[in-house]
Write a structure and sequence with these properties.
By secondary structure, the protein is of the alpha/beta class. Helix content is 41%, strand content 21%. It is built from 7 helices and 7 strands. The model has no long low-confidence stretch (mean pLDDT 89).
Length: 193
């Protein structure tokens, strides 16, 4: 069982990565369905990326209507969802700050993917992962202005860069995202043996 936190600073493209990764995993024959927990009250639920592709104005209006702040009730509900989720593969999309709320939400997760558009932020997210005993699966540089991905496979931690994570863009076929999907599926199979 893997409960994977998608973490990193704000505006790095975590929600875009989440949708592309979910689709890339679903395209792998025999892979478990990736269940998504949206763990940030920013109004971007799992529905958001698909809605942006079809109707950007509706997506923006819905996001504005659903956007709220962390409340103790929200944090407790999401933390319980993570703790009690018994599905084989869960992606947990958290907010972009290292906060007590995000620590509480992630305390029952098992793994983490760090995505950052600022390479100086990787250390603080590694420390966050270590403090919660989360296994780092990948460290990815989000290169918004880039034109291609780079992928470094083969190690325990997949590294590389992903380009232009933009709301509404279809990203499941990006080389980094496909490699990350394979990396997750391979690690999930190992943990199930």
């Amino acid at each position: 069982m893997m409960k994977i936190v998608l973490a990193g600073p704000p505006r790095s493209g975590k929600s875009c990565l989440r949708e592309g990764l979910k689709q890339a995993i679903r395209a792998i024959p025999g892979a478990f369905y990736p269940y998504v927990i949206t763990a940030c009250p920013d109004g971007e639920g799992a529905w958001f990326q698909e809605t942006v592709q079809k109707d950007p104005e509706l997506a923006a209006a819905c996001k504005a209507a659903y956007k709220s702040k962390f409340t103790p009730e929200f944090v407790e509900r999401i933390a319980n969802s993570v703790k009690h989720c018994s599905l084989e593969l869960t992606l947990i999309d958290i907010g972009g700050m290292i906060t007590p709320e995000n620590r509480k939400i992630c305390e029952h997760a098992t793994h983490i993917i760090i995505l950052s558009s600022d390479s100086s932020k990787f250390d603080e997210w590694r420390e966050f992962a270590e403090s919660l005993n989360l296994t780092v699966l990948a460290e990815i540089y989000s290169d918004y202005h880039g034109t291609e991905d780079t992928v470094n496979e083969g190690g325990v931690i997949l590294t590389g860069s992903v380009h232009y994570l933009e709301r509404g863009e279809l990203v499941m076929d990006r080389p980094l995202i496909k490699a990350l999907a394979r990396h997750i599926v391979k690690n999930l199979k190992k943990s199930s043996e």
